[in-house]
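User: Some background: our group keeps a shared notebook of sequences we're curious about, and every so often someone picks one and asks for a predicted structure to add to the entry. Today it's my turn. The entry only has the sequence so far, pasted here. Could you supply the structure so I can complete it?
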Amino acid sequence: MPRTDAPLSPTPRTRLTRERHHQVDDRERLHTLLDEALIGHLAIDRGVFPVAMPIAYGVDRDGPDEGGTIYLHASVAAGWMAGAAGRTVSLTVTEIDGLVAARSGFNHSMNYRAAVIIGEARVVETEEERDHALDLIVDHMIPGRAATLRPATRKELAATQVLALPLAEASLKVSDGDPDDEPEDVAAGIWAGVIPVRRTADPVVPDPAATGPVPADVAARAAALRRT
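Assistant: Of course. Here's the predicted structure to add to the notebook entry:
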């Protein structure tokens, strides 16, 4: 099993075929993206048609799968998930960092970080690993939150499915910087630049039935998002 901190070594399925200078082989930067992003899109070939669905996730760098494990949260009732277990799927995680306003429509673009993870999905079967995975998924949204919650009921667990995906086969593409314009377009004097984009949080809004102050974990998460 490769080290979870080993450099990314893209396979033919994850290697870029164009703009290869945007490919990044630093696994730590992959994990930084996975830490910062909140949602991924899982692509599955249903046979009749492909499906790509948004999905919550949590990461265990030292998980039991090759290269570490990313856990995916889904409902047992979701029919599109039935075709995922035991099959090759891909997970895409993207963060937009800027809108690049170039001097031509052709060169307009975005600054972004995008990861593609490909592997065989497995259903998490054991109670211990499932509980660990669900805690990671909750804590990915709000760090420390899982420890403050009541245990899940049997009914809730029966309705929940967790998939595990190895982190071994992955690629990271990063685009940043200024517009890449043609010299003649620059000389023409057309304005160009970048609109930086970031995610932030508004003040916490308590549920109408909530009592007491905002919990420390929620307040800390909101404060962290406001600083990014």
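Suggested note for the entry: Helices lie at 27-36, 127-141, 154-158, 183-187, 216-227. The chain has a mean pLDDT of 90.
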